[in-house]
Description:
By secondary structure, the chain is mainly alpha-helical.
Amino acid sequence: MPLRPGISNGNFWNTPSTLKCFEGVQSRVLSAAFAALLMLAGCDVGDSASSNAEGGAGGSGNGASGGSTQGGSTQGGSNQGGSNQGGSTQGGSTQGGSGGAPELGCATTGDAAQPFGNHEQAYTAGSIVPSHKSQAELDQAVRDYYSAWKERYLESGCGDARAYVNVHNNGLTVSEAHGYGMLIAAFMAGADPGARSTFDGLFRYFKDHPSSGDGRLMAWKQGPSCSNVDGSDSATDGDLDIAYALLLADKQWGSGGDIDYHAEALNVIGGIRAAEISPGGYLKLGDWVDSGDYANATRSSDVMPGHFASFAAASNDGSWTTLLEQSLDMFTSLQANHAATSGLLPDFIQSPYASPAPVDPYFLENAADGAYGYNACRVPWRIGAYWLTSGDARAKQILDKQNAFIRSATGGDPWSIAAGYELSGQPLPNSSYSSLAYIAPFGVGAMSDAGNQNWLNQLWDTVITMGLADEYYGDTLKLLSLIAMSGNWWTPAAAPCPNN
């Protein structure tokens, strides 16, 4: 079955011509043993805590936001901590749910329950935001860039009340882009009065294009005629973001309207669990993977620990916690055994849990498959966003190694970040240009330690200065990174419901 896992520098990666097609093959189903319930380390499982809550190791407290240091965030308790604006420290919060069944979305009248810029969910103790700008300036910069991004990439069409992210290159859109668009619409509600309409249009488009491997997932690519092209199976990263975005929507607008966001999220989560997790327990490259070398590999940028924690909370399924734990262990092993100097991770990983190692060149896409390329460049954003909202010490350790390397390798100059590295730390051939896809995610990763404050400030300025590069992949990663860097990333399992 053809593989089309992502987009590189605006160009779609295509399938090796020797790959055989497995259209119509049924997806493997996980064994019952993989459903064993495990709680995140440190979670309170007493009567006052939700058995489904996201775990975290951060401190707790109340304070103010707007400067360079942000207070703790412990998820799993029964109280929602407050946060006040105006000071130099963002206070902590104790976030949780109720025992038993997961709480459904907020009761709203259609307005955003978590409006952009509210900063109700405090970041982890010890994390930082750019300190040389006020909170109002950070938020406005995101609004301004979102407006430019939306005008360039978000379009209506392919049916009544449908929307999609136009990648403007060799096709119409891909599921990866669609997941990003749904995340962005949910996060920007409140700043954009039309965010819910946009989200619903994106959702309807998603439902119009089910994967042939598992109909709960999305076919990975559509062409200018709006129909599926290059195969109609899935890519795991797009499905993960779509499911997470639906959980955000549930806490943003509630699920009592035309679309039951919560039920739809559980539907996609079930599809991912059945068709995109291997019998060995790691993420597959898509629902097309059945056997051979591709079945013994995973993609580093598909590891989204914050998503997994939220899926565990929403579905009451501890196998997502197991996936989170084992994925972080995999990253730690890779850093220790294959990237001791750089801490960077490869695009693709073979023998993910047994003996994780970078794959050989041309494993799937190109010569950099075993290097830090256009897939792995997203890892600092994914792991960084998880750290900011969980306080998981393992995530910080992963980020600290990468931060130390990139600051040293560039001499503290973000403009010197190469567009790809060998795991040894050497820049890849032909990588001596500045790419938002590489620079912006490092900004989220830098938020893990106060010692990175000046570096983070420079990263923010560099990313803002680069403007809209007119290249879908980098521009979109920039917007998602800015949302996190400005203090506006939040998690559905810990979202307050002010109207309930």
